[in-house]
């Protein structure tokens, strides 16, 4: 039977050349998916995509709750996000193929829903295809440098007015064991980056990139993208694209360091990838520089950096302080450390503190947790700072935050097929500070 099918297919190809082209396009591993952005919608369109209208909680409950029903592949838990913006949280979820049989469903595009920070109602709603290229923690690329990590696909400007979304590479890449991807000359891979206004949902700029994307970032006025022919900055370049002149060509400059973020008016580059960190087992101190986004000129330098946090936060070992001995947990816990807000230059003593982030109703907050909170995996925060607050004094009153959690409801049969029915909860609630503030 299989032989008959093959012979019949070959006969059709020989009789109709145009059909052979279609068959090749469909069966080839190199297949482009065109970028598609839906029209702007609102609560009605969100409801059709299984995003509920907000409901309020009772006393002691969240201020509002929004839920979304979705099918997720069993390894796609991390293909969702909650993005802080100046106009309310932006929910990013996989869009399932509802018209397909359950066993064939999978993410077809990405849902974008901007929520009103006060009520949870949908301010604007869109879908984009291909999906946003959110990296998964278990994702690796064969042939990549050990230093290389898939960069974040979502960037927010310091003022929260713009969001940049990098879509999945088109077509799929063919990789060998070398340090360079093996491109097909007839099907050069590309990635599309969309910049949207977080206020209106309108597309501000669209950029197509070629090669390996090492990083992306947004200032209040520009999109910066770092690309390379390898998985390292050497031999690559950083291109700056104006948001106020969306038709203008990008301006490129070279750097041997990694693009790890941006301030309101500058690009942040590091001698180490953005997810590099220090702990008692291993520590490599990095140097972080702030650059003019148009020319690449260095404006500021921060040495002895131990960690890089979202929204321009740096964890630094103070001048004159030696690194504690490896594996000496007590010495590491007691070591002096300072937290630097690169936007304002404010420095905060964070010795004996752990640092985290949360989405606030109209922005983002850095949280400071006591590191001596016993064996608890998530000690309550003792204080916080709003990103962009320009204050060097952490606040200790309770903080309103917006959270996204996934509740799995899969059956054993669905799990065997590689899918699970899940409910996503987006809630505005109050985070109570611990007693250590």
From TrEMBL:
Residue stretches of biased makeup (Basic and acidic residues): 44-53
Region (Disordered): 38-65
InterPro entries: Quino_amine_DH_bsu, WD40/YVTN_repeat-like_dom_sf
Domain of life according to the entry: Bacteria
Protein name, UniProt field: PQQ enzyme repeat
Originating organism: Actinomyces slackii
